[in-house]
């Protein structure tokens, strides 16, 4: 089974659309993270939309501190709710 993250795109209201190598795809809600100290950069217009898959396969934003989220945790959120 290949659960490597292959695509990510920002959606409105701090949601991400994710696609994995095994065909799993869907949207996750990151609203609970918005406003927390580590994620304050998202409050700046256009920052959240700059999400991408990093060289290491994580969900990433090239902002101060190189914010990254674990793709495995997001995979579990998609598949197990």
> How many extended strands?
6
Elements, N to C (H/E): EEEEEEH
Silhouette:
globular
In percent, how helical is the residue content? 10-25%
CATH superfamily grouping: NE0471-like N-terminal domain
SS content category: mainly beta
Structural domains: how many: 1
Q: What are the segments in which pLDDT stays under 50 over at least 5 consecutive residues?
A: none
CATH topology description: NE0471 N-terminal domain-like
Q: Order of strands across the biggest sheet?
A: 1-2-3
Radius of gyration: 12 Å
Which CATH top level class fits?
A: Alpha Beta
Q: Report the average pLDDT across residues.
A: 93
Strand content: 25-35%
Assembly context of the chains: single chain
Gap between N and C termini? 19 Å
Tally the helices: 1
Gross CATH architecture: 2-Layer Sandwich
Largest sheet: 3 strands, antiparallel
Verbal overview:
- The protein has one helix and six strands; from the N terminus they run ββββββα.
- It has 81 residues and is mainly beta.
- The protein has one domain (5-80): NE0471-like N-terminal domain (NE0471 N-terminal domain-like, 2-Layer Sandwich), CATH 3.30.2020.10.
- The protein has a three-stranded antiparallel sheet, covered by helices on one side.
- A hairpin with a 4-residue loop joins β2 (15-20) and β3 (25-29).
């Amino acid at each position: 089974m290949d659960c490597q993250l292959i695509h990510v795109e920002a959606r409105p209201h701090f949601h991400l659309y994710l696609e994995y190598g095994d065909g799993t795809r869907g949207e996750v809600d990151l609203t609970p993270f918005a406003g927390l100290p580590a994620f304050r950069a998202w409050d700046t217009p256009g920052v959240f939309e700059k999400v991408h898959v990093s060289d290491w396969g994580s969900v990433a934003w090239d902002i101060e501190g190189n914010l990254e989220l674990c793709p495995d945790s997001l995979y579990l959120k998609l598949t197990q709710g």
